[in-house]
Amino acid sequence: MKATAVVLAAGEARRMGRQKLLLEIGGVPILARVLRACEHLPTVVVGAPSLRAFVEERGARFVANPAPESGMAHSLALGDAEAEAGMPLLVLLGDKPLVTRALVEHVLAGADGADICFPQHEGVGGHPVYFSLRARERIACLPRGDSIQLLRDDPTLRRRVLDISEIGAYADVDDSEALERLQIGIGHEIP
């Protein structure tokens, strides 16, 4: 199944004190790992202006988010506006460096016939999240903030939850300790 990948990467990384998406795990920048997982799809990255050159060098389209404080729903709306019309979206988070192409493909395959499809393990939802054309129509109506979950959990949409325990769906880098755990625990062994 084809979709446009939308990578949300506009966060300010306040807890890190620097642009965390360019920090490396196993010698590869965090954002490069995410882009590698979806490089087979048309990709739009909604990010901080400081990421433009990095993203464009890797062949993805870049959309600057001038108001990251408006939350992920605002970033998603910017990505949706830039993505090709008539195509579903697959939303990835820029700070989940263990996401793999296999995970991306698993969610896309599992989405067949669903409006929303995402991994979940022991009640915890993960990423990437698939949004059908029907679900895409509702993105512009989301309130500002981190309200993507409202769309993901909309009872009027056909949802498919995939029982996936793969760490790439859940592990994120929100602070220095999380980065260090991934660097020490996995290091150069990450594909």
Question: How is this structure best summarized?
Answer:
The protein is globular, with a radius of gyration of 15 Å. It is of the alpha/beta class. Residues 187-191 have low confidence and may be disordered.
Task: Describe the 3D structure.
- The strands form two sheets. Strands 1, 4, 5, 6, 7, 8, 9 and 10 form an eight-stranded mixed sheet that branches. A two-stranded antiparallel ribbon has the order 2-3.
- The protein is of the alpha/beta class and 191 residues long.
- The chain has one domain: Spore Coat Polysaccharide Biosynthesis Protein SpsA, Chain A (Alpha-Beta Complex).
- The chain has helices at residues 30-37, 52-57, 72-82, 101-110, 133-136, 148-152, 176-185, and strands at residues 4-9, 24-25, 28-29, 43-47, 61-64, 89-93, 116-121, 124-125, 129-131, 159-163.
- The longest helix has 11 residues, at 72-82.
- The chain is globular.
Biggest sheet character: 8 strands, mixed
> What is the percentage of strand-forming residues?
15-25%
Give the mean pLDDT. 90
- C-alpha Rg, in Å? 15 Å
How far the N terminus sits from the C terminus, by CA atoms, comes to 24 Å
Order of helices and strands: EEEHEHEHEHEEEHHEH
* Name of the CATH architecture: Alpha-Beta Complex
Q: What is the CATH class designation?
A: Alpha Beta
CATH topology: Spore Coat Polysaccharide Biosynthesis Protein SpsA, Chain A
What's the structural domain tally?
1
Count of distinct strands: 10
Low-confidence stretches: 187-191
Which percent bin holds the helix content?
25-40%
With helices defined by DSSP (H or I, 4 residues minimum), what is the helix count? 7
Q: Note the overall shape.
A: globular
